[in-house]
Structures are given as C-alpha cells and as structure tokens.
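I am still getting used to backbone structure tokens and would like to learn alongside you. To get us started, please write out a protein record for me. Start from the sequence, derive the backbone structure tokens from it, and show both lines together. Once you have written the record down, we can walk along the chain together:
***
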Amino acid sequence: MKIYSLVILLFTTTLVFGQTQNGAYTAIGKGVATTFLNDYQSLGVNTSMLGTGTGYEDKKMTFGTSEMAFSIYSPALTKQNFINLRTAISNEITGNSEEGFNLTEQKEAVANFAEKGIAMNANLNWFGFAYQGEKFGGIAVQVREKFNWYSQLNEQTTDIIFRGQFASIFDSLTVAFNGDTTKIANRPGISQDTLAAAISGQISSPILISELTNGTKIKQRWDREWNIGYGRKIFGKPETFALYGGISGRYIQSVAHFDFESNDDGVSLYSALSPTFDIDYGAIANSNPSAVIGDASRKIPEIVGNGYGFDLSATVKMAKIFTFGLAINNLGSVTYNKNIYKVRDTLIGSVSLNGLSDPNVLQSVNRFLDKDGILEIEGQEKLVVANSATIRLGGSMELFKRINFGVDIVAPFNKDNPGSLANPIISAGGDFKLFKWLTLSAGYYGGGVYKSNVPLGVNFILRGGAYEFGISSTDILRFVSENTNSVSTAFGFARIRF
C-alpha cells in the first residue's frame, strides 16, 4: 500500500489536474484544448490536430516528458483539510503516526465529508513524441498514467469509515478485559481504557448493507496508457477551407478498478485491485477463481486488467483564423481477470473495524473490502468494463497572431463508469503572446462536479520554440481565497522541438 500512497503523495505534493486535457499543462491554464493541442498532447483530445503541424516552420518533431497534472475538489475542502490529507498519506509512507486523529477529530472529519463528496484526478506523462510533416501528416506516441477518484458517502457510512466500531449506529460495544468479554452501551463519555478494549460494535436490529450505505458512491480507476495516433489534412487549404482527420488508439493496463454504488434500487460493487493495495480479503479469497497473491511492496504495481481504446476526430480550418474540432475519445473496454469481487446484500449486525487514524479518504476502499470490513463480498472470474468515453466539440479564433481564443464542450458517453465526467463541462479561454518567449493563458470553466473555475497559466518558449516549460492551475482563486473548493496546478519542464 505504500507504493500506492507514494504515487498519490507525488501528485498531491505537485498539485496538478487535467481530466479533460489529459494532463497537458499548456491547455490546463486556459481551460480549452480541442483546437489548441497539436502534437503528442492531442492524443485522446483531438488527434486530427496532428495534421496541422507544429506551428514552427523549421521544426517537425516534438519530444516531452515530466508533465504532471492533479486536482482535488470537494464542497468540504479547505486549505487545512488538504494539508491534513497530504500529511496523512506522507505519514502512512514513513510510518509516522504522531499526527493521527483523536476521536474528536474523527467526528469533525465525519461532519466535513458526510454527503459532500470528493473528486480527484491525476495525470502523469512519462513520455511523448510526435513527427509532423506537411505531406505526411502527423504521427505521435505517448505513455501516460491516469488516476481518477470520486466518492460521496452517506452519513452512516462516513461515520463507520472514520470511527469504525465506535460509530453512532452501533448501540453496543463488545469489550475484552483479561480474556473476558462483555457488552456495554455505546454512549458518549466512555473512558479511553474501555475504548481501547473494544473489539466490535453491534446493532440491536441488523440492517441490510444496501440500507446502511444508501446514497453512497465510490468510483476509482488507475490506468497506464500506451498511445499512438495519426492525423493529416484530407483536402483544402487553411487560408480558405481545409478538413483534417485523425485516428488514435491505446493499449490500457489497469492497476485498479473500484465501482461501488448504493441507492434505492439496491447495492452494487465490482472491484479489481492490484495486490499493491495490500487488502486482506480473508478466507473468501480461497474460493475466488481470480484471486492473486502479490507483493504489496513491489515498486511497479501489478496489472489486474488489460484493454484498448480508440478515438476518431476531425478538424476544420477556415479563413486562416478559424478552427473547429470534433472528437469522440476512448471508445473501448478493459477486461479484468485478477482480484475481482462483487458484493452480496446481506444483513449487518456487527463490525470489528477500527476507524481511520488519519484523514486519508482513499483508505475507505480498504474499509469496504477488508475481511473485517463493511461489505460481504464474493469472488468472480472475469469483469469487462466499458471505458469512460467522451465527446468533445471546440472552436477557436486567432487574432493579430498574438491572441487565440476558444470554447470547448466536453460531455460523457457513460458517466456511471469510474473516471467519467459527472456532467458536461463548458469552458472558454485562450492565449496571449506577450513576447516571442512568453505566452500567458487564462479562461473559465464549469460543469461536471466542479463549480466555476478560473484557470491561469504561463508558458516560456525559448530559442524559437526549441524548448518550452511552464506552470498553470485550473483555479487561480484557490491561491487568493479560502472559499473555493478545489486545489490544482500543472507543470511541464521538458518539451523540446527540433
């Protein structure tokens, strides 16, 4: 589990985002991407832009690495909550427990996150390369890591996750002293010695898991993508009218898939998690045909699923200054065949589970699946999951060779899949070339699970486009106000053209 936490700590330390821009920091700072990205960054966004060239007459190749993106959003998020989360993950890695919660802080955490929801999205570009020629068109490859999380817990579920067997739903506790066990009422004011002796919490009238968790949703996905794409001009001239087409595909290696939802229609769970998560499933693993025993300390997490995705896109350029793009991205699926579990809706009467010792909400998955956890689970041999496909439409206008302004609409194909947008996102923004070596970007976007956001970015272009680096954020308001509900930034420092 430490390797998993280390990855998340890396993202939360660098603070970055880009669910609709695939981690491209050059697009994150303006909120729009469909007609702005034109090299390997266009893969998964609008591959047909590969056919439009690099934007520099004497350069046909682009190479990039070390581009990162991450964001956290929650109506309950404050600066201190974010620091607590990052500290909790850090403590888990280092083994430092000095800054853990006490029971009072656990109750505060319940109040902060119950029924509020939290979303996290992270992208890391390991490597990207593109070749773009006027006659050949453009071809690009890219390897990137993607992590998506969304959770919204009802009050009872949050209470159990953070307080375990001491949650208010349990009216009695079983405590053990010197080998003898007895039941006591679960009430305020119990001494610390007695609390330390508690081994389980009981409900006098057991209820179904679906009733206990009604209104709870947790969706998680962690993939590694190997992308390749090609785009070129089909006909015409951009000075009047030109049509470009593009196609791209990817091989997907999945490290984690967790999809839990409980509502009035019942409860459902499909889980496939790498041994990296170090979950003790207990005896149920012995009868699971897909169970695997792995090393949680492996530096490279074990893959539990493989699949594919492909994209189709088109771009139109008109009158030199107008560009319009349409793309359908990530059609396909992933097949899981390791550590697959689903839920059985049974009565729950007692729980032997400690509450979270810190505010690391990602640990809630363990509290669901652990042998002493909330859910009653059973194994499954195989699971096929459709990708979180999107459709995007965008347009932009270039003025005076210094200003490029555009609008994007990105909508989900299947928003119920982990990693999907909750709702369409609408954004507007652009670039202003202040100098040949300095470009400023800004914009606005809203939708999905996010409120209104004001992205801002700065990009440095040196030696006529040969080298560029920059930093951006999806919501600059976070740095000037305590009342916004998101934290994000993005950066890249190794983009080279030649």
Summary: The first strand starts at residue 61 and ends at 73. Residues 9-18 have pLDDT under 50 and may be disordered.
